Amino acid sequence: MRLLNFFDVAPSLLPNERCCGHDLLWAGDVENFKKLAKLNTDMLNSLDIEEIVTSCPECYRTLSRDYEKHGFKVPFKVTHVYDFLEREIGKGAVDFKKSSQKVTLQDSCRMTRFEGRADLPRALLNRMNPENFIEMQDSGNSSICCGNSCWIGCDSFSKALQVKRLKHRLPGTPVNQLREQWWHCNKMEM
User: Fold this and answer.
1) Of all helices (H) and strands (E), which one includes residue 68?
2) What angle do CA 63, 65, 71 make, to 5 degrees?
3) Are residues 50 and 12 in the same domain?
4) Is residue 129 in a domain?
């Protein structure tokens, strides 16, 4: 919210916000996904919204692709917060202080492999200090999932994938910060 306000955007918060239904769809529960999508699109369309800015890669994909694919009209623009930030920062209103922190990134499956947008977080990270951004092994479109599996596969296989991914953080390379594109990745790797 503070970022949006900084760029003179006064967002409206939805009084009855619900999940977009991504996990239902990807778990194969299309019937309940469609019920939720109908509730959401009816509400959103009644509000005369021009643009939705979301930080969630799953909401971005679901609102921009899956709703229409399943017959629900989405007459507004769906923007990922990284696109919004690049658009606004590109206007020249903001500069970044150089950071001596070494940073790596856990890519979001939805934004990289499914949407082909591995460039988004890198553009923002590179604004801070390009020489201190360290790519993880298996990054970008070939990154390995954090092991979350949409919260529907939190079993021993998911845990093994999480451990494997943690080991890919370039062992022996000092990294001060790990940045994730998705709060599920962050939660699973804490």
Assistant:
1) helix 67-69
2) 90
3) yes
4) yes
